[in-house]
């Protein structure tokens, strides 16, 4: 059932975590958990099951790209889709994200339609049911 999909939102800014979480809920992802950086996210990922991670790129401690690389090197986490969120739209960053195994890439600021489109594509590619918009 789609309501069982768990999404981990990772961002060092509490306001951005709340915005992304609210957008996810508005497009049908009702089971959203938040983490304040990559290190905290890894604790969550190693303790509980998640269907997708939506992570900011630039964070202190462990960046989103480092979190992604760590996940891809971990046999238990490597299959979890990761959508990277960043203010950087450079070709180098997009290429780096793709080469590191990102499932998708989204540039701030974005709206719910953009997030819904990216999440739907990622979920379908990973054989998961796309939730209905609330």
How would you characterize this protein structure?
InterPro entries: Bact_response_regulator (IPR050595), CheY-like_superfamily (IPR011006), Sig_transdc_resp-reg_receiver (IPR001789). Residues 6-123 form the Response regulatory domain. Pfam families: Response_reg. Keywords: Phosphoprotein. This protein has 134 residues and is of the alpha/beta class. Helices cover 43% and strands 18% of the residues. The chain has five helices and five strands; from the N terminus they run E-H-E-H-E-H-E-H-E-H. The chain has helices at residues 14-26, 38-47, 64-73, 91-100, 112-125, and strands spanning 6-10, 31-35, 52-56, 82-86, 104-107. It has a five-stranded parallel sheet, with helices on both faces. Helix 2 runs parallel beside helix 3. The longest helix has 14 residues, at 112-125. The two termini are 15 Å apart. 32% of the residues are buried. The model has no long low-confidence stretch (mean pLDDT 93).
Record the SSE blueprint:
Layout: E1 6-10, H1 14-26, E2 31-35, H2 38-47, E3 52-56, H3 64-73, E4 82-86, H4 91-100, E5 104-107, H5 112-125
Parallel strand pairs: 1-2, 1-3, 3-4, 4-5
InterPro entries: Bact_response_regulator, CheY-like_superfamily, Sig_transdc_resp-reg_receiver
Organism: Noviherbaspirillum pedocola
Keywords: Phosphoprotein
Relative helix content: 40-55%
* Backbone structural class: alpha/beta
CA-based shape: globular
**Count of helix runs:** 5
- Averaging pLDDT over every residue, what do you get? 93
N-to-C SSE string, H for helix and E for strand: EHEHEHEHEH
β-strand number: 5
Terminal CA distance? 15 Å
**Numbering strands along the chain, what is their spatial order in the largest sheet?**
2-1-3-4-5
Radius of gyration, taken over Cα atoms and rounded to an integer in Å? 13 Å
Stretches where pLDDT is under 50 for at least 5 consecutive residues are none
Strand content: 15-25%
Largest sheet: 5 strands, parallel
Protein name: Response regulator
InterPro entries: Bact_response_regulator, CheY-like_superfamily, Sig_transdc_resp-reg_receiver
GO biological process, one term: phosphorelay signal transduction system
Modified residues (4-aspartylphosphate): 56
